[in-house]
Design a protein that fits this description.
Blueprint (H helix, E strand, L loop, with lengths): L3 E7 L4 E6 L14 E9 L8 H11 L7 H7 L9 H12 L10 E3 L2 E5 L11 E3 L24 E4 L2 E3 L9 E8 L4 E2 L8 E3 L5 E9 L4 E11 L9 E2 L6 E2 L1 E4 L2 E4 L7 E2 L19 E2 L6 H7 L5 H5 L15 E2 L3 H11 L9 E3 L3 H5 L27 E2 L5 E2 L4 E9 L4 E8 L5 E7 L9 E2 L2
Parallel strand pairs: 7-13, 18-19
Antiparallel strand pairs: 1-2, 1-3, 3-5, 4-6, 8-11, 9-12, 10-11, 12-13, 14-15, 16-17, 20-27, 21-26, 22-23, 24-25, 25-26
Helix pairs in contact: 1-3
Length: 447
């Protein structure tokens, strides 16, 4: 019988532990010292099974025709007189026909037993109970409500950012989803068996669908894997962080974004007359827009200081603020790009070199570059725009005159390496600048 209160007490009656039987009628007490203990039970659940037959059994026991013993004898003594007589039979009959709704003895009577513990051994003690007055023992207490068997659905492998869960609808008990392992996952409605689940590409999640009643629960597990979508360089892709779509271009063995990165919240740049940054390591990606105008970010992308771009690490080739699967190209990667386009580029010198590498990288025309936009053919498809830059004092310079791209490589603790392009020159520069400058960012694909 479930939901029975069970007490462990000393032989002097001191209660040491109290527990409640589970849905199978099981109970346990642990970590008791050697000695003799008593186990007693109490139930507050509704009783039943009382009828005229029970009254007749009590009367026959009083007359000596059918002697009662053990637990049944205790159940017959409903007035707690210590013996069975016609009063017990009358009370049982009155309870059956309706005038009485209780017995002086209560509703339930249980066996009690002694548990003798020694030598660290466990003791199993089975105890029975009867309703007072139910002398033929025909009453079976209502069973513990069992939950519907939980079914979390088949394991899933998803290309994308979300899926629909496939738990079963409960007919008995309440269901709830939980994430057991995996980071970055979100369950839209934990109590909905077919809730939307959103995860992160490349991550695997273990979820449980648990259906519970007051007695117990049923649990099933499902594994959901979000795979990175198949990517072909030259195809556009969506940055799942903000929904922006970027075009890409294959140049030699490398894959590059075809537009400047434009992720994050704009901060207002203030001219203070000294080198500084308005960005901070606060867990929010922050960017500058030329002249503090968001419309310029929409065209030219954001301008980022070096530390913000790197997300406050100093590891060349790190992902930084790039989307998943992309990274900030290091100095050596810029060298591979530029020497592939122009063998005359010298990656070992500072300043401009090359014959036409800049022309091959710059967008043609004078929409985003000032005339003469020397050598611009954009034959590489890189499509560099004259985005200008944020000077480290806080003001902006050279829109349509310069494009300056950060590298993830350092020159020193205070300076990062960059690659500038100029409106009236067809080569490219290799330079270093204070990390508080705001330059453009191009991401390269991680393979």
């Amino acid at each position: 019988m479930y939901d029975v209160q069970v007490r462990l007490q000393t032989t002097a009656g001191e209660v040491l532990q109290t527990t409640t039987t589970d849905y199978l009628g099981r109970y346990s007490f642990c970590q008791q010292a050697e000695g003799t203990y008593q186990v007693k039970c109490t139930s507050f659940r509704p009783s039943g099974g009382i009828n005229s037959t029970d009254a007749l059994i009590a009367l026959r026991a009083f007359m000596g025709l059918d002697p009662l013993a053990g637990l049944t004898r205790k159940a017959a003594d409903v007035n707690v007189s210590g013996y069975i007589n016609t009063t017990d039979a009358l009370l049982i009959l009155q309870r059956y026909v309706g005038p009485n709704t209780t017995f002086p003895a209560g509703d339930w009577v249980f066996e009690s037993g002694d548990a003798i513990l020694s030598g660290g051994n466990s003791v199993i003690l089975n105890l029975r109970g009867l309703c007072y007055g139910d002398l033929d023992g025909n009453f079976i207490p209502a069973g513990c409500p069992m939950p519907t068997l939980a079914q979390a659905g088949a394991d899933q492998t998803i290309t994308g950012a979300s899926t629909t869960l496939a738990g079963n609808t409960s007919q008995s008990g309440d269901g709830v989803w939980a994430i057991i392992s995996g980071t970055g996952g979100t369950i839209a409605q934990t109590g909905n068996p077919t809730s939307t689940f959103t995860g992160t590409s490349g991550n695997t999640y273990t979820l449980t669908w648990t259906i519970s009643t007051s007695c117990t629960n049923s649990i099933d597990t499902v594994i959901i894997t979000f795979t990175s979508p198949t990517f072909t360089c030259g195809s556009p892709f969506t940055d799942t962080r903000d929904g922006k779509v970027y075009n890409t271009v294959q140049i030699g063995t490398q894959c590059w974004m075809k537009e400047n990165l434009n992720i994050g919240t704009m901060v207002t740049s203030v001219n203070t007359g000294s080198s500084h940054s308005e960005c901070s390591n606060n867990g929010i990606i922050e960017k500058y827009c030329y002249n503090n105008d968001p419309a310029n970010c929409a065209v030219y992308g954001g301008l980022y200081d070096w530390d913000e771009m790197m997300q406050y690490t100093a590891t060349p080739g790190t992902q930084g603020i790039c989307p998943t699967g992309w990274h900030i190209p290091a100095d050596a990667e810029w060298c591979i790009l530029t020497t592939f386009l122009d063998a005359t580029v010298n990656c070992s010198v500072w300043g401009f070199s090359g014959t036409n590498v800049g022309g091959k990288m710059k967008e043609t025309g004078t929409t985003h570059w000032y005339s003469p936009n020397t050598g611009a053919t954009n034959s590489s498809g890189f499509t560099a725009l004259g985005a200008g830059y944020r000077y480290h004092y806080g003001y902006f310079y050279d829109l349509a005159y310069y494009a300056v791209f950060w590298s993830s490589s350092e020159y020193s603790a205070s300076h990062g390496l960059s690659r500038p392009l100029l409106y009236d020159y067809a080569g490219i520069s290799r330079s270093y600048s204070l990390k508080t400058y705001g330059f453009s960012v191009r991401c390269a694909r991680t393979y």
